[in-house]
Amino acid sequence: MTHATEVSETPFPSLADIRATADRLAGKVLATPAWRWQTGAAATRLSPSTEVWLKLELWQTTGSFKLRGALNCVEALDADAKRRGIVAASAGNHAIAAAYAARIAGTRATVVMPQHASPLRIATCEGFGAKVVLVKNVHEAFAQAQALVADEGRTMIHPFDGPLTSLGTATVGLEFMQQVPQLDAVVVPVGGGGLISGIAAAVKQLNPDCRVYGVEPFGADAMYRSFRAGEPVKLDAVDTIADSLGAPYALAYSFGLCRRFVDEIVRVSDDDLCRGMHDLFIDMKLAVEPAPAAAVAALFGPLKDRLDGKRVGLVMCGSNIDAARHAELVARGKPA
Fold it and tell me: Which of 111, 135, 156 is the last residue of a domain?
């Protein structure tokens, strides 16, 4: 069991380390923009005093925030490790980021993906030069990736856990707080916790009064259950349209950072995700995958009353989705 003392002792990225990482990654990752949402649902379903700002990380190179952590990990490898190559397990966004990071760092990537992964994501990984291995589900993807570490000496680039990963994602929080001063709250979609752990560490050190909320689908709520249990837990199954949020378990490091810096985890349904996708497409002309829509669903759902009249930041974490699937889910989210 992860006790409170263990959580409080979890090492966390300092502001100095986060700023140094941002400087090191500059020119290799994009400083993505922030934009205020002032139309449609934001104007009609929220009080006039509520400000909603979107951190547009879906415009990052590779289409998601994942490059920040993956590249930070790959660049830390020595020459011998780069010669042996890397391996990643992912439903898509992390696999794409790992493939791209390997290419620009001069190493080789094998990515293990569940067979239900989007054909667009598989093709993108192959386009960046990665070898793609398809397996039955996300649990088998992690097991196969670990086998490649043992058999081939590859380095596992974990999709969400570890100091270098959270240090990379912390640069998202650093940028957002610089772009939109005095945010009252930041809402972050949660899969395994790699994104929110870094963002929360940056946000809370810059402004301890800013609330940080995580959002998970009901069918992939490992961090929510871990908060309730007081220790990282493993799910028996994952069932959500948001494959980018489908981590099958929480792990110690990211869980420890989340317990230290995240105020609360809330949950939303897949129907809520579809409505969020519809709102973002109609109002902001953003074609997002389900994961970023989790932040929107939380704003208009379980967090609506608490965020009334506040300056709120929503992290648009990524968008690697094919046109047909996007159209299907947006249609599902259209109001009756």
Answer: 156
Is residue 9 a contact partner of residue 259, using CB atoms and an 8 Å limit? no
Same domain? For 186 and 199 the reply is yes
CA–CA separation, 77 and 235 (whole Å): 31
Q: Are residues 185 and 93 in the same domain?
A: no
pLDDT tens digit at each of 336 positions of the chain: 444 445 557 789 999 999 999 999 999 999 999 999 999 999 999 999 999 999 999 999 999 999 999 999 999 999 999 999 999 999 889 999 999 999 999 999 999 999 988 898 999 999 999 999 999 988 899 899 999 999 999 999 999 999 999 999 999 999 999 999 999 999 999 999 999 999 999 999 999 999 999 999 999 999 999 999 999 999 999 999 998 998 889 999 999 999 999 999 999 999 999 999 999 999 999 999 999 999 999 999 999 999 999 999 999 999 999 999 999 999 999 998
CA distance 72 to 20: 11
Boundary (domain end) residue, out of 138, 156, 174: 156
Phi, psi of 230 (to 5 degrees): 80, 15
Q: Range of 283's domain?
A: 4-64+162-332
Residues 309 and 319 in one domain: yes
The string of DSSP letters for 270-284 reads HHHHHHHHHHHHHHH
Q: Where are the beta strands (DSSP E) in the chain?
A: 34-37, 51-56, 86-89, 109-114, 131-135, 155-156, 185-189, 211-217, 264-268, 311-316
- Domain count for the chain: 2
Q: Do 59 and 176 fall within a single domain?
A: yes
Query: Do residue 277 and residue 321 come from a single domain?
Result: yes
- Considering the entire predicted model, what is its pTM? 0.94
